Amino acid sequence: MSKEIKSVLRMRKRHTPTVQTEAREEDGRNLLQQQSIRDASLAAVIVLLLFSILWAMLSTLTGRIFPWMTLLLGVFVGLAVRRAGMGLDWRFPVLAAAVAALGALISNIVVAAAFTADALGTSTLVILRAVTSMTWPVFFDEAVSSADVVFGLFGAAIAAFYANRRLSRAEFLALRKWQQEQGSDRHQ
């Protein structure tokens, strides 16, 4: 067994002989069993609500609306879906993108209500409770711009990008081996 010489000037090797690259079928099955769309959904909704409140507070505090905050919402939703859902398939990016797009709309509604409440000297909840079918067209005409739509779409794309779990080399090989075993079982 040879001993590695560690040098300060050399970068760490990624694939050393001590790294386990032996992939087992059970490990791949365990990766798929760890997925949870329910946990991912719950985490995404919690992030959405907290982010909407913080965005409204920041906007009323500074007196400015920041449409690029939707991009941050996409990052946070995507990371929450990744962390809580531990997903590997297409459902998790779709969930993250849908929540981020819906979150962009909800956040804009909360921010517009916060500004309206500040102008009228009341609370944001009073404004949100007073919304009727007559106020929605006014909101979409005056509060939502094309920049909000573009930022919302980009936020959804960012959320989808960050939603899936990142696998190590050993996990990837185990998942691939499990999928190959499942494919060979179907053909027999």
Count of β-strands: 0
CA distance, first residue to last residue: 43 Å
pLDDT averaged residue by residue: 84
Helix content: over 70%
Determine Rg (CA atoms, Å): 23 Å
Question: Can you write the helix and strand succession as a string?
Answer: HHHHHHHH
Tags for this entry?
mainly alpha, 188 residues
Structure overview:
With 188 residues, the chain is mainly alpha-helical. The protein has 8 helices and no strands. Helix 4 runs antiparallel to helix 7 (146-163). The protein is elongated. The mean pLDDT is 84.
SSE layout:
Layout (H helix, E strand, L loop, with lengths): L24 H9 L3 H26 L6 H17 L5 H30 L3 H6 L5 H8 L3 H18 L5 H19 L1
Helix pairs in contact: 1-8, 2-3, 2-4, 3-4, 3-7, 4-7
Summarize the structure.
The chain contains 8 helices and no strands. By secondary structure, the chain is mainly α. The protein starts with 24 loop residues before the first helix and ends with a helix.
